[in-house]
Amino acid sequence: MNDCPRVSIKSIGHYDGQTVRLSGWLYNLRRSGKIAFPILRDGTGFLQCVAVKAELPESTFEALRELTQESSLTVTGKVRAESRAPGGYELDVQEVTIHQRIPEEDPYPITPKEHGIDFLMDRRHLWLRSKRQFAIARIRHEVIRAVRDFFDDNGFTLVDCPIFTPAACEGTSTLFEVDYFEDEKVYLTQSGQLYNEANAMALGKVYCFGPTFRAEKSKTRRHLTEFWMVEPEMAYATLEDVKELAEGLVCSIVARVLDRRREELKILERDTSKLETVKGPFPRMSYDEAVKILQGKGSTIEWGTDFGNTDETLLTEGYDRPVMVDRYPTEIKAFYFEPDADRPELALGVDLIAPEGYGEIIGGGQRIHDLNLLLKRLEEHKLPREAFEWYVDLRKFGAVPHGGFGMGIERTVSWMCGLDHLREAIAYPRMLYRTRP
RNA sequence: UCCUCGGUAGCUCAAUGGUAGAGCAUUCGGCUGUUAACCGAAGGGUUGUAGGUUCGAAUCCUACCCGGGGAGCCA
Question: How do residues A144-180 score in pLDDT, each as one tens digit?
């Protein structure tokens, strides 16, 4: 029987009627005196097995019947189509090899019952085995694949940017200082954008994808201290090109997740009708218009300030897809934004705000390409010219209009999955008061 | 950093200032189609820590520790 095929739960449907081997962990066990229903998980799915006492050696049946949650085992048995099973198939057990049996004295702590968030977060390394976390991990993987495919298929070259950086992209207040390098203060990156601009001048269309660190004392369900961001940057591009790219990317991600991760969305009980409508063109509005709309809806926002979280939710209200807001006051944006030619007090930046209260998932725009303007901005923002010398070079040697954006992976995954907290969108979230495991 | 809520059995939670309890988990017994399986029984507690008020504190007061949510900031 050892020569029967070793299969994964995901592909079990191809082996109907055949005897196969399945290796995994005991997810749950229901049993009576003469029949037992062990549910196995193997990282590709969940499958209920059926062990009938009368059809098995006494020792095999008893070993299985007395098995504990999350013990590791290999089961040999016959695949059978079963209309009562959630996945359509079951496995009739013939042989069992137990690799490790978890003793009753020190059982697996995460039972199929309810647990509090503190308890689960302390056991994040085990919590990942749960069905819900399994589904989220697979959707995150699909989102990332969709992102890479989108850029790869549209002529972008991946050029990853450094994580140790000598200067801030947007001010030093939220940077993590690294005390190691001699002669120089070095920080953990909060964006690869500045390097991306250099890369775009070399390769035209580029993107980087990696971790980002923000030393913000944020303590909300929308913030992580360490998160992943994908950042495209294009040479010879305007604000309109950036908006079109952002829209195309988001549509492509949503379509891909709907196409390939139906099972996982179902596990999460995600209302997919709210994703089906996410198609271009997205509603577009200027910051001016957005402020008027918000004031009309009772927000206390005033022109010249940034949106709060409730403002973002209000803005997308009544829309079944993300909303793009552009042309923000220069005052509240980073130093590198190109000003609007007609109204220099506005920056050619754009934010993409996801519906259902998920807020800003993309922020970007057109960058300054004029040398003198950039020098002026560096001065206004009191940024050290020396650290930005190489960045200034880009405006000295063949400067062109260019732009791009950053998209937060965890916020996007949260939106796709319908999560109510960012911490579930990454395997090991790093937050203000949580750095373990 | 500020505001706010919370900490009781392994877990999730109850308990008017007056004998600390339930469900689940665990152990034992029963059950051949269970879907968070079910039924019966048993064991399981320094009520986050330190102090105070009181005849008496899980409960009221003070300080501290730990965590949840939110604000600002941002993806």
Answer: 999 999 999 999 999 999 999 886 555 556 788 888 8
- Give nucleotides in strand B with any atom < 7 A to a protein C-beta: 1-2, 10-13, 23-27, 30-37, 66-75
* Out of A125-139, A178-192, A286-300, A325-339, least confident range: A178-192
Q: Which residues contact A144 (CB under 8 A, 6 or more apart)?
A: A209, A409
Number of domains in chain A: 2
Is A35 part of any domain?
yes
Please check whether strand B approaches the CB of A174 to within 7 Å.
yes
Per DSSP, the three-state class of A271 is: coil
Task: Quickly give A294 CA vs B41 C1' distance in Å.
Answer: 63
Report the Cα A109 to chain-centroid distance in Å.
Answer: 27
For A119-154, what is each residue's pLDDT tens digit? 999 899 999 999 999 999 999 999 999 999 999 999
- One domain for residues A93 and A154: no
Report whether A45 contacts A11 (CB < 8 A).
no
